[in-house]
Amino acid sequence: MKKGILERLAEGPVLGDGGYLLELEKRGWVRAGPFTPEVALLHPEALRELHIEFREAGADVLQALTFYASRDKLATVGLEDRLEELNRAAVGIAKEVAGEQCLVAGNLSLTWKYEPNSSSAQDSVRKQFDEQLAVQVDAGVDFMIGETFSWVGEALLALERVKKTGLPAMITICFENQEVTAEGKTAAEAAKILAGAGADIVGINCLRSPEHTLPLMRQMRAAVPGYIACQPVAYRTPKDSPDFTSLPEFPVGLDPLQLTRKAMADYAREAREIGVNYIGACCGAVATHIREMALALGKIPPDKRLWKKGGEKPMSAYEYYGHDKA
What we know:
alpha/beta, TIM Barrel, globular
């Protein structure tokens, strides 16, 4: 029987996977703009392949592609009547690939419907979360991730609904171009609120590069004793506009901003040094990034496949230019 997420975290850092929607858009399977996950229904083989890449790169967890799979968001592309089918398919594909090797995380995301002073809007958000949760829990996820909440209030609603399922809850918020949430909470304050409300894991995901996320993670680590999670984007962003979605390059001109695999490995090491327990990545992070992070964290061994070198002549440019001596 697979160890659960909390058991794994108790043993040491857990490695998450990378980004799905933007990578699948680059591959031609997702439309830029709405970024809705109908690929799980229309091109399941494409989603399956990306899960396999993350698994083979060393990820401990595969996230079901149910980000933006809420009813109102799916309605923007005419798929509101396929919510159950889509959520079930996404979990099923992730479980098939995960096997006994990886855990499968269900996923809830921002709804764009939250209003801090509207009980009716909050009830609508609860209903949307419950619809997705009912399907994902029935489909057999191992734990739930609620993510990309710029409002701590919406993150609390996600936590409230997940706790009713009895599954472990990982709740991560995001910071746009200010170092406070939409209601003005610092990273430390947000972490205390979420942990105090019963989140098993709290943290930060998306929008910002590791450079602009890790200082906020340090604040969270100092604020709460429990498990914390970090899943930044793999894009380089400027200090005055750290939210990559605010840049003119978003969404289809981001390629020159993508971080190197070394940069992501360095991020993983620094996150571990800070005391981050769940170390993953978000938009822009591909399998090569996750593999280098896995190597940095000792999750997989260096490549030791047969390579006969040392003959009379080099047999590759790698040898010819001395890169193998570096």
